[in-house]
Structures are given as structure tokens and as C-alpha cells.
Amino acid sequence: MGGNNLILWYRRPASEWVEALPVGNGSLGGMVFGGAKRERIQLNEDTLWSGHPYDPNDREAAEHLGEVRRLVSAGSYPEAQRLVEEHMLGPWTASYQAMGDLGLSLDAEGEAAGYRRELDLNDAVCRTGFALDGVRHTRETFASAPDQVIVVRLAADSPGKVSVTARLSSLLRYRTEAGENGVFVLRGQAPSHVEPFHAASDEPIRYEENKGNRFEIWLRAVSEGGSVHVDDDGIRVTGADAVTFLLAAATSFNGFDKDPYAEGKDPAILCLTRLARATAFTYEELLARHRADYRALFGRVAFELAAPGLAELPTDERLEAARAGRSDEPLAALFFQFGRYLLIASSRPGTQPATLQGIWNDRLRPPWACNYTVNINTQMNYWPAETTNLAECHAPLFDLLEELRTTGRETARIHYRAGGWVCHHATDLWRIATPSGGPSKGPASWAFWPMGGAWLCGHLWEHYRFGGDESFLRERAYPIMREAALFFLDWLVEDGEGYLTTNPSTSPENTFRMPDGRKAAVSLASTMDNSLLRELFANCIEASSVLGIDAELRGKLEAARSRLRPLAVGRHGQLREWFEDFEEAEPGHRHMAHLYGLHPGAEIDRHRHPKLAEACQVSIERRLLHEKEDAIGWCFAWLISLFARLEEPDRAHHYLVKLLRNPFPNLFNAHRHPKLTFYPLTVEANFGATAGIAELLLQSHAGELRLLPALPKQWPEGRIRGLRARGGFAVGLEWSGGALLRAEIESFGGRPCRIRSVAPLRVRSASGGEVDVTSPPEEPNVCEFATEAGRVYTIVPAQPR
Question: What CA–CA distance (Å, rounded) separates 408 from 454?
Fold first, then answer.
């Protein structure tokens, strides 16, 4: 097991779950502890949630909307908020469930020596090695997407020295038994209801007969030599040279709208089929199939920083060194690729999207139900999908949107008497679309936010902008975007000043202070609402033009968009968050929702809107004065991209370093919130940091490619290949002395390419000939040239260094 810059490695086993190493194939996940004589692999399956389909809509909610709007218009914001919290919220989401554990117990004497465990990002394989009583043992674990199994291979360097007992267990209700053909089976049942971890309840986990998800885990041992015995307690392998365990798991989930008990799939058939298929291959063949499938995604991007680092140290010791202030710039490259690894492992075509914890969870009442929180967290999970060349991994989010369109139509109709579809701040496996928080009556600052669909639709448009697939736009993206826009056309109301406004409105998850000192979260026309709607309406307008349809709707959207309140600067020079220049009740609040137009949106651009960009900068600086009160890992990840868009590399790097000092030993982000008594794992900061690092090196949000727009001075030399840019381009960059040496741009759509850099550029074709470029007289560092689909263009400085 050699070392390279794509390996997480450790000198001791994981002692707790947040130290274990993750594997996943999009639907089946494992956390590998790496124990020597006692191994634990904690298991998850992406459709194992509490609950079942039901109608969460409140038929009385719409009766209160008019009065809420009247109170808001009268400036009675706390009174409007109380009415929202009392009468317009819905139930909690369902909870993602821990499935079970695979335990392996070696029959060996002595203490382990020469121990090492690692996760190789290049292969997506966990490896553990150690010596016991003079015998060297090795273990390899991976989750195969082609064969839909977790594979664990144990081997020793002496014949007949592998003797091991394998067992399965679960926190859920279950039983185990010996199945046919040498298979060990765990059969279990998920709860019909789980209260969130923060909710007090006499019965937080409820099982009901004939309700809820059923699940099964099947385990088979393929031994090389020795003997295999299976009974109702587990599998016993004795005297083998090596053994390969194949694990398959499935649930009865059969769709968001089908009862998993009465209309569910048979998990036994799914497990039987997968195990039979996997057993037909040797271990070497399974590994080769897994590696080829994974590398086809992961291998698209390579990133190297030529800077001193601490790769010779185990990963946990590198993190400790970073916290102590030691420089380790290559750790950023490892963190970048780890984020890409996690997205591949937790989100594949045909699977569920990545949750708050990706695909990994060890609890029945996980933090925030381990759901899809769509007022930033779910979206942040997918920020790197397009830029870092993992567009296929975006697909589960689009499937979720298609299904939310169905449930969201009912919520729009019942809660608001509106057309189209709506989604609020959180959803789950059953695609709940109602506001959450009803059982606790809010607070509305997070519980009431009907803008989730608008933000999520941005991902559909981004996928089109990067890939240019008009069929996707016509068949998948535009129908969903169109219906979301129809809801908001109904949702907007006149404000008496000529504007169309969202009312009631919140700015996630913030509160303001009124002139009389009272606090409130509900008002009208928050800045984020307006930015989201300007973006959604503009995207629908352009999409309908591209497709040549919906001219009448296009006109309505153009008219409505022109009547939204514009962005405004407050008395402190900050970008205002609300329609009035309220003071913030929490000056250090973690959400920077009003800066959506800077990032991830593109409404505010440093080069086109310098005054608004300056106002964004003031907003950030004011928040950071109070950073310790509320800032956490994902906030740092967002700040990397915000400062990248402002072309402030020093500040972006500062927050990248803060984030790299934050993770658990396994590089998962630790949600170190000062208001919590324990720190859960949340994965959006990992994904957000990967996207942020890409944003430092390449931007394409403003109709042009920006090469090295926010390169940190700590990265004077490096190279990256395989990034993607809007407009249908793949980009490779090489730099030295903090300046661009060379870029290669491949055009997929044959569109014109516009580039902005810090110095004038020359463009050459693949044959080496000069390409004609045009530059605006006032911007000599901007060049534009025509491209042909499939051609590669080389970009070099106009003046050689």
C-alpha cells in the first residue's frame, strides 16, 4: 500500500463512527472502521427511510393567507409571523435510517503490529493491513456500482491463516437466519414514524404492523481453501487462504407515491439477483469492473499543487498539524478530490440524491432527520457536479425535482390556491412539499420558505448551460421550471408601490429587528426571493425562446420580472437583505441568503456591477465581525466561492484554511455549531469546498471564461485538467509564478468562447496555427474567438514570460 496524494491513511483503526472511512456506490454505503481482529462496517441503503406516503397538506392553511398578507402590509410583522407559525406549517419530514452493521471477528492471537488503513481515492478502495502472530493480514473493501454489492476481501501471506466469523446486526427491528446456498440473511423493518432528534417525545420511534419499509441484507462468503459454515448466527470461515464476502441489500421501496409495505418490491429478489450476478465473477474481476466504472468518472479531473506539504503524515495528523498552524497546501487538493469522491459514492443515476450526510448515517434519529434541506444544503451538495465534471451525478437531484413537481402541485393548490408546484425548506424520500415545523410551531425563520423550488430549478438550467443538451431542456428541465414559475406568478401580489412582491417572505434562516426593537422573520420581498425569481423567470424566458414555445407565458414572465423590487444598498453600505433597511437581529448569522445573486447566482458581477459587488463585500465583512457566534463549516465553504467571485484570493484562501482545520479525522466536515452539544457530520461543506476550489481557478458565470480569477498566492505553481465551463467547454490550466502558463480549452458545442484573464492572451488551434481573436478596445485582457465542436484550443500569454 504505497502513498500518493490521493490517499487518506492512518496508523490506527477508527475508534468512532466519524473516524471511519466511507465507501458507496450511490445506493449502498458503508463506513469502514478498519479494526484488526474486530472489523465493523456500518451500512446504509439510500431508500431506507422512516414513514410511508401520506397527505401532509393542511386544508385550513389557505384560510389564513389573506390575513397574514394584510398584517405584513400593515407592518405587523411579529403578528403575521405568529399566525404563520400557528396555522400555516406542516409536519416533520421522515428520517433517513441506519440500516445495519457487518461485523468480522478474526480467530487470531496476539496484538496487531505494522498497522495501516487507507482510502485510495484513485480506486475507491479501503485497505487495512497488519500483522498478527507473524502473519500479515490484508483487507480490501469497496462498493461496486456495476454489481451493486459491497465487497470485502480478507487474505493472509501464509496459507490457511484466515479464520473469521461474519455477523449482521441492526438498530432497527430485525431477525437473522441461514438462507439457501450458503447465504446469511438479515430481515428488518423500518419505523412508520420517527420524531426528529431535537423533538421531545414519549414515543420518538414508532413501529406499526403492516406499515413502513421492509429491508434485507444478504451476505455470502466465497472462500479460497478452508471451510465455510452458515447458521442463524452468522458465517464461519475456517482455515482459508483468503475469503471474499459479498454483501447485497435492498428495501421494499417502490416509489415516492407507493406504500412500501402493500405495494413494495420484494427485497429478497433484489438481493438474490445481485448476489447471483456478483458471485459469477472472481474477486479480481469484481475489482476491475468497479475500478473501471469509478475511474471513468473520477479520472476526468486531475489536480496538482506544487507546494510543500505534509503528505508523509497520516491524514489525522495532517489535520492536527493544520490546526496547529502548519502549512500544507496540497491538503487542499486532497480535500478537493475527496469531495468529488463523495459525490460519486453518494449520487449516481437511478439512486436517491445525497442527503445532509451523503449516503452515510449511523442513527435512527439523525441530525435534522438526515433529509434534503433545500434552503442551501442540498443545493450545495451539487455545486461541484457540473464544474468538476460529474454531470451524471446531478441526475438524482433532477429525479427528485420531477417527483416534487407531483407532490408540490397539491401543496400549491391546497395551501395557497395557486397553480404550478411549490417546495419549502425540506423534503424527504416521500417528497413532502409542505412547510415543516408545525409540531413545534416554527420558528418561521426556517419553517416557512416557499422558495425551494425556485432555487432547485437553477440546477436544471445549470446542467443545460454546461452541457447544451436541448433534449434535456425540452423533456426534463423546462417542464419543471415552467410549473415552478407558474406558482410564483400566482404567489406574487401587488404592494401598492407598483412592485410585485412575495408576501409573506423570509430570508433563510435570519431575523431582523424592527425600529421598536422587536424581532421578526416574516415581512415581504426579501432580497433572496427577488434574486431567485429574477433568475427563474429569466431562465424560463430564455429556455422558451431556445425551444420556440410558450410565447404568451414568456411575455407574462417578462412583465412580472420587470416589476420585482431591485437590489438595494443599505445605510451601512451593505446589500440589503430585506425590502426595508432593517438591522439584523443576529449580526453574525450563518446564512448569507441575500448574497445569492453573487454566488451561486450570477446577478451581481464584480466587473459589470462594481457598486453592488462592493455592497456584497460590506455585507460579508459585517457578518465576519461576529463570525464566532454562528459560523460553521459550510459557511466557510460558501465564503470561499463568495470571495472567489469578488476576486479576493487572500480572503478565499483564509476560509479554505479554516475549513481544512475543521473536519473529522476522515475529512468529513464537522458541524461545529456553538449551539449544539455534539458535532454531527454534514457533508455539504465538503461539496461546497470542492466547488469553491474550482471557482478559484475557473469561472464561467458571466458569459465568459475567467482563467485563474482568484488564484491564492500560496499556490504559485500547479495544474488542473478536466474542469468544465458553461457554454460547453472543458478546461485545463497550468500556471507558474502565480501566472498562467498555458490553458487548453475543448469545445463541445461549437459556441464562441470569450475569455477574461489578468493579461492579454494568444489562441492557437490544435495544429499550432494562430486563431483570430477580437478584444474590446476598453478591455484588452478579454478575447473572443469562434470554436468548432470537438476542437481543442491552446491559450498562452501574449507576451512570453
Answer: 12
